[in-house]
Write a structure and sequence with these properties.
This protein has 252 residues and is an alpha+beta fold. The chain has helices spanning 3-17, 22-35, 37-52, 67-81, 85-92, 120-128, 189-201, 232-247; strands spanning 139-143, 149-150, 154-161, 181-188, 207-216, 221-231. Helix 1 (3-17) runs parallel beside helix 3 (37-52), helix 3 (37-52) packs across helix 4 (67-81) and helix 4 packs antiparallel against helix 5 (85-92).
Amino acid sequence: MTASDIKSTVAQIAATLNETTDPARGQIAQVVELCGVEQALAWLAEAQQVEAAGGLMTRDGSRRRTPGGTFFYIVRGHLLKTGQRSLARQIFHFQSVKRPRKAAPATPASTLPTTSWSERGEVIAAARQERGKATTVKVTIIGKPGKIVERQNFTLLMLKHTGPLPALPKGIPVPKTIPETTYIVYIGARQWRKVAPALQSNADDMLIIEGVQLYDAEYQAITVFATNTTTKAIQQAARQSQTAQEDQPAAS
């Protein structure tokens, strides 16, 4: 792992998460340097999946975390879960021994009932009494294509997702076994021509597809019409080019 690899990866992660402050970029640099480029990019991909699924709420549930906050939450949680507390402490600068806190005033427990996945029907039935209206629906799919079917004006892919789910806010009911979900993706010919060479030259590259979705009852799959298509390699190359341009001395 060279200094150039670290610098370009830090720039890529910071740009993807829209983190522009020096403290945040410094923390990203520590993640990359101490945990490695591959692991840092894996955490970035997980954070993007969480964002695509609706994001992650803060601990008190008052607001949605920023993409950067989600990324750092995933990193710290992984390090603590795998017993790497000293490494987490080095990156996030927290005390290993909790200091005693003043007793907070007792808050009344919520009277709302909890709901498991098997009990979701009652909640859904209540919501059906007055349905809202969705004006915009977006989806992001990250993955590798299987059979590629090309036509004159579009390319069609079929991908399946079987989990695991990303970190979700506490209390949301989820099934014990994640069912298989099939996605049928339509990509316009012009978009496909931009990504096809990258996929052909790098078997490990990953597609990143953004689009709108609908349910195709005939094929029991979610159909996605791509509005933007790229790959991780293309994104990384763009970040590296941007970093190189920023590093060039200004013309006198």
